[in-house]
Amino acid sequence: MNYTTQMDAARRGILTKELKKVAEKEKFDIAELMKLVAEGKVAIPANKRHQCLEANGIGSMLKTKINVNLGTSRDCMDLNMELEKVNDAVRMGAESIMDLSSFGDTRTFRKKLTRECPAMIGTVPIYDAVVYYHKPLKDITSREWIDIVKMHAEDGVDFQTIHIGINRRTAGRFKKAKRLTNIVSRGGSIIFAWMEMTGQENPFYEHFDEILDICQEYDVTLSLGDACRPGCIADASDISQIEELVTLGELTQRAWDKNVQIIIEGPGHMPLNQIEANMKIQQTICKGAPFYVLGPLVTDIAPGYDHITAAIGGALAAASGASFLCYVTPAEHLRLPDVNDVKEGIIASRIAAHAADIAKGIKGAAQWDHEMSTARKNLDWERMFELSLDPEKARSYRESAKPEKEDTCSMCGNFCAVKNMNRILNGEIVSIFDE
After folding, report:
1. What are the pLDDT digits (tens) for 196-230?
2. Is 414 found in the same domain as 343?
3. Which of 134, 205, 406, 433 is deepest in the core (most CB within 10 A)?
4. pLDDT for 164-195, tens place per residue?
5. 101 is in an annotated binding site
6. At which of 320, 338, 360 does a domain end?
7. Any idea which positions bind [4Fe-4S] cluster (predicted)?
8. CA atoms within 13 A on the CB side of 117
9. According to the annotation, is 265 in a ligand binding site?
10. Is 412 annotated as a binding residue?
11. Residue 152 in marked binding region
């Protein structure tokens, strides 16, 4: 193989099978896509060892992609259930799965994903290091943190989130800033606590060049984690968040200098009126690198419904430049999501992504809606189900309240405006009560 990473290949003018596949999916000119990958504005996460991967591109000019977080925990460690969630997520259109397992035989699960799952696979080495070494946090060495990054690369994961922006300097600024909800990122809180207990520099920051060498060897995309993402709307756009983003911007250029693809992670909880500005700031500071956002959640008061608060923020974020939405389920802040929670989160996130794609003018996005509207005009129920994001739910709703006449629904019956307009415009008589 005469290239190291997808970025390296694009810069050399080499057409990889992954780039070709993405261009076909997106109906995108190959030469233009190659230029965007070369510039870092599109990432194609594709570990050389993930042989069953169905490649996807991440960039603001492409279809908005969604990620589904899954994995075991101490309280819920049923691997079969997690695999069921993975399969459901892929079937429902998720392009990416992040394995956030924090208990049990994590490596077996991770290898099974990269061996069998066609979605992009992401991980967070910080979580796995705590599980793998099974010793007090302060006793994990800098070398051991980096070794986990290497292990995940060897296991075939396509992208890794490393919480690298919270270094000694930014941690000092954070302590002075006095946030309402402190650090809500799991990885960010772990590495912050490690730095406080050991007095050492963030090992991912200190040994960034070595991590880049690992990424070059396996073609791993780095997702630069947002340790200081706001955990409530009161902390949105504060000094800690912005200073970390500046650090991530500096590291982005260092990665690109070594042909390593980068994704930038972002907020978090954020009021609606700050989302667009945050997307533009990120694009400026990080030179157009794809932005990966959790939500953003636009209010803090909706536990049990945070898939909705995240979809509202996600639609606006993606329409304003975000490339990649991390789904949020109704279980957010409350528990590990079950199979139904995963489904609800995926649908909400896909609605947000599609709404943004319409706003951005992505090829084919509005056509889907046009076909649905045509089916509705024709009262073609089967076609409406086919075009639905969730055909099963749409069909079950209609069948749960059968109308007297098949060409209407139980809401309007003979008052159906669509049916009556079709008739009157066709020169027929409309008689509502006599039918």
Report:
1. 999 999 999 999 999 999 999 999 999 999 999 99
2. no
3. 205
4. 999 999 999 999 999 999 999 999 999 999 99
5. no
6. 360
7. 409, 412, 416
8. 34
9. yes
10. yes
11. no
